[in-house]
Amino acid sequence: MGGLIPAAVLIADALSGQLGANPIQRATLQTGLLTLALLVLSLACTPLRLLTGWTWPARIRKALGLLAFGYGVLHFVIYLLDHSFDLTLMTEDVLKRPFITAGFTALLLLVPLALTSTPHAVKRLGFQRWTRLHQLAYVAVSLGALHYYWGVKKDHTPPLISAAVIATLFLIRFLKRRPTRPGTRAAKV
Ligand code: HEM
């Protein structure tokens, strides 16, 4: 429930005209940053568990991932609103601007992950296939960081910091991953 507070604040600010001179741009930036931050947090859960042995990060990982997807959809809807829901314009933008291509692909990759986030889906796909599918989250977060880097006009320090955090999380996973033997369950994503 707490994860919906930023959305509530954004709606309240929009209704009371407190989003500044360019409310659409402000809302796009806020929801984009939230999407990326939540994606990074969801991917930080496993490295945190591997480093500390704590089990609680694994319990909140799914909620963080679903919230990231929800804010990503909101971010996209605001973008569409800014383009009067003109799908031709959107398609042109996706095909012509690498910045938008990266963001759009990242969001598309999150769709199968959100759809298979239920225990039923894990059972239906089998744990190994489900794990392999959910490795798409690494590609999505990397494309999200690239989209952020390309989207920023002046100071590239914040996107570079986010890329460094993501690279560190990948490295921890790589160094701490358990070797998988045939017939055993794969290391958790
Ligand atoms: C997982 C998917 C996505 C992530 C993580 C993401 C992340 C971000 C971030 C962090 C920003 C802020 C950049 C800044 O501070 O200047 C941003 C801005 C933006 N994003 Fe995304 N985004 C995603 C998907 C999309 C999609 C699907 C679209 C549209 C098709 C899109 C369009 C935009 C636009 C237009 C901006 C604003 C650029 C500006 O006005 O300066 N994003 N996004």
From TrEMBL:
User: What's the cofactor?
Assistant: FMN; heme b
Assigned GO CC terms: plasma membrane
What the record notes about the co-factor is: Binds 1 FMN per subunit.
- Classification via InterPro entries: Fe3_Rdtase_TM_dom, MsrQ-like
UniProt KW keywords: Cell membrane, Electron transport, Flavoprotein, FMN, Heme, Iron, Membrane, Metal-binding, Transmembrane, Transmembrane helix, Transport
From the Swiss-Prot or TrEMBL record, state where the protein is found: Cell membrane; Membrane
Entry's Gene Ontology molecular function annotations: electron transfer activity; FMN binding; heme binding; metal ion binding; oxidoreductase activity, acting on diphenols and related substances as donors
Span-the-membrane segments of this chain are: 32-51, 63-81, 101-121, 133-150, 156-175
Q: Which residues form the Ferric oxidoreductase domain?
A: 31-144
Q: How does it sit in the membrane?
A: Multi-pass membrane protein
Q: Which Pfam families match?
A: Ferric_reduct (PF01794)
**Its Gene Ontology biological processes?**
protein repair
Give the quaternary structure.
Answer: Heterodimer of a catalytic subunit (MsrP) and a heme-binding subunit (MsrQ).
Recorded family membership: Belongs to the MsrQ family.
Q: Supply the HAMAP family for this chain.
A: MsrQ
The UniProt function text for this chain reads: Part of the MsrPQ system that repairs oxidized cell envelope proteins containing methionine sulfoxide residues (Met-O), using respiratory chain electrons. Thus protects these proteins from oxidative-stress damage caused by reactive species of oxygen and chlorine. MsrPQ is essential for the maintenance of envelope integrity under bleach stress, rescuing a wide series of structurally unrelated cell envelope proteins from methionine oxidation. MsrQ provides electrons for reduction to the reductase catalytic subunit MsrP, using the quinone pool of the respiratory chain.
Name listed for the protein in its UniProt record? Protein-methionine-sulfoxide reductase heme-binding subunit MsrQ
Q: Which organism is it from?
A: Deinococcus grandis
